[in-house]
Write a structure and sequence with these properties.
This protein has a single domain, classed as Tetracycline Repressor, domain 2 (Orthogonal Bundle). Helix content is 70%, strand content 0%.
Amino acid sequence: MIRPPERLAERDAAIAAMLPHVPFDGWSKRALRRALADIGAPADQADWLFPGGAVEMVETFCDLSDRRMQQAAAELDMTALRLPQRVRAIVALRLAQNRPCKEAVRRALSLLALRGGARVAGACTARTVDAIWHAAGDMSADFSWYTKRAILASVYTATLLFWLRDTSEEDADTLAFLDRRLAEVGRFTKARRRVETAMGRLVPPRLRSA
């Protein structure tokens, strides 16, 4: 797993308080100062909480969202759900949690899309996808660990971009989009397994264990 940004209660509190200000002031020190004033934190915290500037603020926000998602997912009863259904439920949970701060998410993605933000964007996506799989109960450590996360990264990124444009009630259109993407993944996986099985039958028995 990619190492997360520094986790401090003061940083978490500042990010949470910043969210209402980001739509107006962006991920900036101005928004941070206003947030600190809102929660009665010392003003000088603005000078040392996020030495990496706006990109570090965004990375901390993504990490905080991951942790909140995992905490909420742990309270869901998903024992009767298959793994893809659990993934779907957790992604839906993530979107619902971030619905009140959609504009902050939009500005975060715009910031990471600028020059110099690609590395952090990739790290944030990788950690989020890993958090979703772990929350869903997938603990695989073989080669499928990589393929599952690569596939979900593609699905999650496309879903997130769709969600930013979605105006339907309770993300209904986005969830329908997510269902279609997961169904496509399911069909691809089944087809791949059929091909692998068929190819395996063509291999002479004496070579299968070689």
